[in-house]
Write a structure and sequence with these properties.
The protein is 28% helix and 22% strand. It has eleven helices and 19 strands. The protein is elongated and about 70 Å long. The mean pLDDT is 96. Bound molecules: flavin-adenine dinucleotide. Flavin-adenine dinucleotide (FAD) binds next to helix 1, strand 3, strand 7, helix 6 and strand 16.
Length: 463
């Protein structure tokens, strides 16, 4: 490791590796600084399964076309219009080429997983999952001559008048050192693993949040950049948050703790009351709201209640459901008021109207006369054993970030583009995601802007 590079990339996940590879292919000398030890390299990317890219025709693994316009409409719907249209459309256009580019970097695809995801047409799944994808990217980067340093936490950035000069890093054995580079790519994730920072917006409720991914995404680089004059984008309370098993570990529980069974039952809070339409829209468009919904409930806890008829309808998770032969017995095991849960289930069952169940479409199985309604996939909960999953908010990643241009170049607070600082991935996701989410977009943002950031960083350095 020399102390002067053309391009310094901070982070070790998808966005960082796409940037590093693109920069190296652009002729630059590149150093990647990954704060985590080698075994834990790759941040949240390790946990991923798929990516959403536009394509005009079916492919070997995608069942049909997903046009730029349809992608844009999906993004518009999930964000409620809170997106930068120029950047978002640019990303969507570039995503078409990423499907091939990422394969050229050694990543392989596999057909979509089944269950409630319904992603076979829109999302490409990584063969072997996110960790296999990362291994392929690291291998390619290293073969191309990218230097990678693990256990290398960046603790300070030297920035003068919007120009990056050097990074100070801390290494457990080799100690502190300074690295200079002509260009910087910041790809160090959001601040989701920083509970104290989350508490600034969520108060003590954040103590009950579980963080689905890496404990290393503490937002330190984001904070340094914002403190040193980079323009921020996004609402700090907005994030991707799903309902995950309350028995999951505090960090890094990954995908196997996520529950996709909401549409097959009802969800109640600690008072055994329903609080939201469990059948509002198809699951890939709704799964990412349930973390926030549970966060708004007392003690940030909720319970998905269903019966034995649906147990094989969704992807199983790490934790078995809690079972009772009666609703009251189940309530006792969940430490809920048995009479209250019985009342809620009885009222729900009475409100269910006849219909033809089909979880892949917005079917006509709905309730009538209760609040909140269940507008699709409503079926009576009446076949013992009765089952439940306790769930808590599982924070995936935060949206507060650095504002960037189409070239992934950071904008400074005064509106001027930085001379040599670029950003990609979660750290700038808020440019595209003002709120909401559609499955697979995290990796699209990282890959598209990572590739652009690396290319532009190299171009700057070589000029
Ligand atoms: C359980 C789970 C499942 C997911 N599934 C999907 C999916 O299927 N599809 C999808 O599109 N998205 C998914 N996501 C979201 C996706 O993981 C992220 O959007 C994406 O991986 C972000 O990539 P990134 O490179 O920006 O960040 P990360 O991959 O998180 O990488 C950030 C890196 O920065 C490093 N770092 C942080 N601070 C420092 C510092 N000070 N110095 C040096 N290094 C630092 C970290 O160690 C880490 O390696 C999932 C997330 C989780 C948690």
């Amino acid at each position: 490791m020399s102390s002067k590079y053309d391009v310094l990339v901070i982070g070790g996940g998808n966005a960082a590796l796409c940037a590093a590879i693109a920069a190296r292919r652009g002729g630059a000398s590149v150093l990647v600084l990954e704060g985590a030890p080698k075994f834990y390299r790759g941040g949240n990317t390790r946990h991923t399964r798929n990516m959403r890219c536009a394509h005009d025709a079916a492919t070997e693994i995608l069942t049909g076309p997903y046009t730029e316009e349809e992608f844009w409409e999906d993004l518009l719907r999930v964000t409620g219009g809170q997106t930068d249209e120029v950047l978002a459309r640019h990303m969507i256009r570039e995503s078409k080429d990423i499907l091939n580019w990422i394969v050229e970097q050694g990543v392989r695809w596999q057909p979509s997983l089944g269950g409630t995801l319904s992603l076979g047409r829109t999302n490409s799944f990584f063969l072997g999952g996110g960790r296999a994808m990362l291994n392929a990217l690291y291998l390619t980067a290293e073969r191309l001559g990218v230097d990678v340093e693990y256990d290398a936490e960046v603790i300070d950035l030297v920035i003068k008048d919007g120009m990056f000069l050097a990074a100070r890093l801390k290494r457990p054995i080799k100690g502190e050192t300074e690295i200079r580079a002509t260009s910087l790519v910041a790809a160090a994730g959001g601040f989701e693993a920083n509970i104290e920072w989350l508490k600034q917006y969520w108060g003590d409720a954040a103590d009950n949040f579980l963080i689905r991914g890496t404990p290393y995404n503490r937002g330190s680089i984001l904070k340094m950049l914002l403190d040193k004059g980079v323009q921020e984008v996004g609402d700090p309370t907005q994030c991707h948050a799903v309902a995950i098993d309350a028995r999951a570990p505090k960090f890094d529980g990954g995908i196997i703790t996520r529950h996709d069974s909401v549409v097959f039952g009802i969800v109640v809070n600690k008072h055994a009351q329903r609080f939201y339409d469990e059948g509002e829209d198809i699951w890939p468009k709704r799964y990412a709201i349930w973390g926030r919904l549970v966060a708004a409930q007392p003690d940030q806890i909720a319970y998905i209640i269903f019966d034995s008829t649906v147990v094989t309808s969704f992807m199983p998770t790490l934790f078995p459901p809690i079972a009772g032969q009666t609703v009251a017995e189940l309530a006792g095991k969940l430490e809920l008021d048995p009479a209250a849960l019985e009342k809620t289930v009885t009222e729900f069952n009475a409100a269910v109207r006849p219909g033809t169940f089909d979880h892949t479409i917005l079917d006509d199985c709905r309730t009538e006369g209760i609040t909140p309604p269940k507008t699709h996939w409503a079926r009576r909960i009446e076949t013992p054993p009765y089952l439940a999953y306790p769930v808590r908010p599982g924070i995936t990643f935060t949206y507060l970030g650095t504002r960037v241009t189409r070239e992934a170049r950071m904008l400074m607070a005064d509106g001027k583009p930085s001379a040599n600082m670029f950003a990609a991935g979660e750290i700038m996701a808020g440019n595209v995601l003002g709120k909401g989410y559609a499955a697979g977009m995290g990796m699209t943002i990282g890959s598209v802007f990572g590739r652009i950031a690396g290319r532009e960083a190299a171009r700057h350095a070589k000029n």
